[in-house]
Design a protein that fits this description.
Membrane topology: Multi-pass membrane protein
Order of helices and strands: HHHHHHHHHHHH
Largest sheet: none
Organism: Streptomyces litchfieldiae
Subcellular location: Cell membrane
Keywords: Antibiotic resistance, Cell membrane, Membrane, Transmembrane, Transmembrane helix, Transport
Number of helices: 12
Strand content: under 5%
Helix content: over 70%
Protein name: Transport permease protein
C-alpha cells in the first residue's frame, strides 16, 4: 500500500460525494431525524429512550454507511471507473483504504452530529463520557463502511446491493440485544449473537449508558468491533473485482 495513492483515492471519492447533496443528506440527516422521531415515540418513557436511543446511535450509522458504501462502490465498478483505476499503479489495498478513509470522514461527521443532537437536544442521559459514546458510534459507522465495501464485490446491480441488507444487517439487528436480552434467548440464538459484531456494538453503548468508568467489557466490545472492521476491509481488498460480470 502507498499512502499517496490512498489519499488521492480518498480525495477523489470525497469530491464525488460533495457533488451529491442527496447522499450527504442521507448520511448526515436521516439518523438525526430518526432519533428525534424515537424521542417523541418514547416521550413518556425516558428510560426506554435512553437505552434504545444510545443503542441506535451505533446501529443507525452502521446501516446508513453500509447502504451508501455498497452502492457507491458498485457504481464505480459498473461504470468502468474501477477497471480504469486498477490499470494504473494502484493496488486493491490502496483503493479499499482510500474508500474507507473517505467514507470514514463522513462517518465521523454523521456520528458526531447524531451524538451531539442526542445528548444536548434530546437529553439522552448517560453515565459515561460523551466522547466514549461518540467513539463507539464512529467504530460502528466504520464497520458499516467495511461491510458495504465487502458485499459490493458480490452484487451485480444496485438492487442486489440493497438486497444484501436483510442478509447482513437484519439478523444482527434482531439478535443484538436491542429487542430482548441476549441471555434470555434460545441457546442457539444466543450463540449466534455472540459472533455478530452488532451485539458488541450495542453492548458497548450499554456500557457507556450505565457505567461512569471505562469497564473491561467496554474494551472487549471495542476490540471486537475494530477487529471485525479491519478483517472485513482485508476481505474486501481480497475479493475486489475490476468489473461486474
Amino acid at each position: 500500500m502507498n499512502a499517496t495513492r490512498t489519499l488521492a483515492t480518498a480525495r477523489r471519492v470525497l469530491r464525488q460525494l460533495g457533488h451529491d447533496p442527496r447522499t450527504i443528506a442521507l448520511l448526515l440527516l436521516v439518523p438525526v431525524l430518526l432519533l428525534v422521531l424515537l424521542y417523541y415515540v418514547f416521550d413518556s418513557d425516558r428510560d426506554s429512550f435512553d437505552f434504545i436511543g444510545s443503542s441506535l446511535l451505533g446501529i443507525f450509522p452502521m446501516v446508513t454507511m453500509f447502504l451508501v458504501t455498497s452502492i457507491a462502490t458498485l457504481r464505480e465498478r459498473t461504470s468502468g471507473t474501477l477497471e480504469r483505476l486498477l490499470t494504473m499503479p494502484l493496488g486493491k489495498g490502496d483503493l479499499i483504504a482510500g474508500y474507507a478513509l473517505a467514507f470514514g470522514v463522513f462517518a465521523a461527521l454523521q456520528a458526531g452530529l447524531a451524538t451531539a443532537v442526542a445528548l444536548w437536544f434530546l437529553d439522552l442521559d448517560i453515565a459515561g463520557s460523551p466522547w466514549l459514546l461518540l467513539f463507539v458510534a464512529l467504530l460502528n459507522a466504520l464497520l458499516g463502511t467495511a461491510l458495504g465495501l465487502f458485499v459490493s464485490a458480490f452484487a451485480a446491480s444496485e438492487f442486489q446491493a440493497v438486497q444484501f441488507m436483510p442478509a447482513m444487517i437484519f439478523p444482527q439487528l434482531l439478535l443484538c440485544g436491542l429487542f430482548a436480552p441476549r441471555d434470555s434467548m434460545q441457546p442457539v440464538l444466543e450463540y449466534a449473537s455472540d459472533v455478530l459484531p452488532m451485539s458488541y456494538s450495542v453492548d458497548g453503548m450499554t456500557q457507556v449508558l450505565h457505567h461512569s468508568e471505562v469497564t473491561g467489557d467496554f474494551w472487549r466490545d471495542v476490540v471486537v468491533v475494530s477487529g471485525v472492521a479491519l478483517g472485513v476491509l482485508a476481505l474486501g481488498a481480497a475479493t475486489l473485482r475490476r468489473r461486474t460480470a
